[in-house]
Amino acid sequence: MHSIMPSARLRPSPYYASTIAEGVKSFTTYNHMLMPTGYGKPEEEYWRIINGVSMWDVAVERQIQLLGPDAGRLAQILSPRDLTKCVEGQGKYVALCNHAGTLINDPILLKLADDKYWLSIADSNILFWARAIAAERGLDVAVSEPDVSPLAVQGPKAEDVVASLFGDWVRALKYFWFSETDIEGIPVAVARSGWSKQGGFELYLMDGFKGDALWNLVKEAGRPFDIGPGNPNACERIESGLLSWGGDTDDETNPFEVRMGAYVDLDVPDDVVGIGALRRIKEEGPKRHQLGALMEGQEPTQIGFYWYDIVKDGVKIGDLTNHVWSHRLEKNIGFALVSADVHPGTDVVIDKDGEAVRASLRALPFI
Amino acid sequence: MHSIMPSARLRPSPYYASTIAEGVKSFTTYNHMLMPTGYGKPEEEYWRIINGVSMWDVAVERQIQLLGPDAGRLAQILSPRDLTKCVEGQGKYVALCNHAGTLINDPILLKLADDKYWLSIADSNILFWARAIAAERGLDVAVSEPDVSPLAVQGPKAEDVVASLFGDWVRALKYFWFSETDIEGIPVAVARSGWSKQGGFELYLMDGFKGDALWNLVKEAGRPFDIGPGNPNACERIESGLLSWGGDTDDETNPFEVRMGAYVDLDVPDDVVGIGALRRIKEEGPKRHQLGALMEGQEPTQIGFYWYDIVKDGVKIGDLTNHVWSHRLEKNIGFALVSADVHPGTDVVIDKDGEAVRASLRALPFI
Question: If we measure between CA atoms, which residue out of B240, B251, B263, B257 comes closest to residue B106?
Fold first, then answer.
């Protein structure tokens, strides 16, 4: 791995000092911020998420706030998912699309009030996007990036940790629902969410000066449960079929291609950005879809920068996007963005820098 | 420095293998790509730019292409600089602003044809932005990111190197002008430009499979001139007063605050994004301006992630943005974004993580 040079273009998170103290070994960049990607014991960190509880600096999940009389209208215009029944305290996974129906982000939308929404975004610039649409349509809404920085607590023991901190009421929170509260003077929204399928919570810290204080509170509360540091885990999320926008998508990917069709309501109003294109794509049928690729071989693949061609009978049928060694399947696995007429069960060859790797395609998730 | 974890969200450049072969030691990320930031001999690399010639992988300067009947109209709508006299083969430095007049990027705009423009962008997502504006206004223009990856040749001997490769005609190119050509089957646009004040060229490679071939051609041509690898140089660019968008600007910075007023023409048409706000800001006077801070002390400062408060008489008057040890001035220097009523010659104190550093403010550039 290479070193990353500091720059004022790249912001550390409010938990930066804590992650350094925990011995963070590597970072990625995401929304112009640094995000920890490992603490030096990758397999131990993986099993902690599967069997225990792990705490993650995910401040890079920036919030794009829509505030004002037209906040709800803008939220709907940006999201081709029917939000009419979304209530305060509820979150929804949405597929932001451009006018061509291309997926440009896949945030959790949180409704804080009738006139206040957050989009908890993946790694693309929705601040500019939402401002452009709001301004061009003359909407009465302020679009900003407020001082909000999530800390995730993930794994089967996460609920016990978060309940011991905030009280048993958190056990009743439904998936993607949240509640604003505070703890020792630290304002947070507690949500049942997180980028793993092991269950857990995200604590949306609302004061960037109190990151280390919140980190330490969670660490203390987690001590009886053997909590440790972790991060969004490439292995767990690929096993679980969770999408990484920008890593598993390209500049032509629409929601139907990446298993997000359930989050597109074709009967939303005509002024929703991209809905016309999405209706056409749905009618014609998307050109690609996303499957899993289970690879032969027992040599763990290295996470890399590149997509690889997926070939059948000498013809390229798609791309292998992110791929990883699966600790549970004990195979290399990855996401395959392939022609819609290629079905699970198909045997293919992956051209990995000239090396031909045999693989079979299957439906997602892997586990 | 920390390690950076590979991910398919972060793309390597077409020159990646060449920079690895040259011994690159660190990277930054920029427009979701990796950019080399050093080859292990920072002072030698600096003096090579000042006195000799240096070659840089700046593929991260992505091009946003506007193509179609309304390309010129969209270029003008996005740029509050009068483009009516811009001709084919000419480039111009422009200040892209949002509807509030905030600077969202500072690209070089290149006019390739009446219906074809490139914006050679800094580190923010102008692809989404330009598409949003084009679609919302119903313009007949395709906005894309084509396969174009600049390689910079910078320093006083750069002209000799580029002339030896392409011919003496390059010596006649005016600043920011360019010409499309090819060399050994590699399509490039040769421009007199680059993010240093030492003179030089950027070779806009138009075939991502030929990065290493172009790298090697330049390296061979540069051998008599003792060319070596380098990168956009934090020291040279701060000495020279060149802006780093996102590092030296924040979410409220307008062009007048960062010495870009000369690139704003207030009499462009009313449909130019942000022009109404820019006229108001100009009339009221911007609240801040950008000066240089010359710091006391002989201990070289480390490039970091943070801005620091600039204080006068106990009151915060602005921020120190990027800062660096100047090899030519033999002082620590940085950019000061301070209240408009603070003038060059003012003595201030910089609060650097609790350490009080005395500095004096002066007009930019430093050299």
Answer: B263
Name the strands in the sheet holding B63-67, side by side, starting at the edge strand that comes first in the sequence. Answer: B91-93, B108-113, B116-120, B63-67, B142-144
Interface contact A128-B104, CB threshold 8 A: yes
CATH of domain B63-130+254-284: 3.30.70.1400
Mind telling me how many Å the CA of A173 is from chain B's nearest CA?
Answer: 32
What is d(CA B220, CA B227) in angstroms, rounded to the nearest whole number?
9
- A125, B123: Cβ pair inside 8 Å? no
Q: How many CB pairs under 8 A join A and B?
A: 171
Which amino acid is present at A44? Answer: E
Statement: residue A1 has pLDDT above 90? no
SS3 assignment, position A187: strand
Asked if A202 reaches chain B (Cβ–Cβ under 8 Å), the answer is no
Domain with CATH 3.30.1360.120 in chain A: 16-62+148-237
Question: Tokens representing B322?
Answer: 């990027």
Pinpoint the residues of chain B covered by CATH 2.40.30.110. Answer: 287-367
Q: What percent of chain B has pLDDT over 90?
A: 97
pLDDT of res. B231: 97
Closest by CA to B331, choosing from B289, B366, B355, is B366
Could you tell me if the ipTM is greater than 0.95? yes
Q: Does B309 touch chain A (CB under 8 A)?
A: no
State the pLDDT confidence band at A353, using cuts at 50, 70 and 90: confident
Domain A16-62+148-237, CATH class in plain words: alpha beta
Interface contact B1-A1, CB threshold 8 A:
no
Burial pattern A187-202, b for ≥16 Cβ within 10 A else e, equals bbbbbbbbbbbbbbbb
Indicate the SS3 state at residue B45: helix
Of B6, B27, B305, the CB nearest to A12: B305
Fold of A288-367: Elongation Factor Tu (Ef-tu); domain 3 (2.40.30)
- pTM over the 0.80 mark: yes
Residue B119 token pair: 């914006």
Beta strands in B255-314 (DSSP E): 288-295, 308-312
Which superfamily does B16-56+148-237 belong to?
Answer: Probable tRNA modification gtpase trme; domain 1 (3.30.1360.120)
Q: Per-residue pLDDT averaged across B19-42, rounded?
A: 96
Q: What share of chain A is helix, strand, coil (3-state, %, to 5)?
A: 25, 35, 45
pLDDT at B1 over 80: no
Distance in angstroms (rounded) separating the CA atoms of residues B283 and A165: 53
Q: Is the peptide bond before B36 cis (omega within 30 degrees of 0)?
A: no
CATH of domain B287-367: 2.40.30.110
CB B244 within 8 A of CB B318: no
**Chain A residue numbers touching B2 (CB-CB < 8 A):** 3-4, 24-27, 34
pLDDT digits 0-9 by tens, A22-71 = 999 999 999 999 999 999 999 999 999 999 999 999 999 999 999 999 99
Interchain contact, A5 vs B38, CB within 8 Å? yes
Label residue B95 by pLDDT band (50, 70, 90).
very high
> B 322-361 residues with CB below 8 A of A?
322
pLDDT of residue B353: 87
Structural contact between residues B71 and B79, judged by C-beta atoms closer than 8 angstroms: no
For the segment B55-81, what is each residue's pLDDT rounded down to a tens digit? Answer: 999 999 999 999 999 999 999 999 999
Q: Give ranges for CATH 3.30.1360.120 in chain B.
A: 16-56+148-237
Within 8 A by CB and 6+ apart from A290, the residues are A248, A257, A258, A259, A335, A336, A337, A338, A364
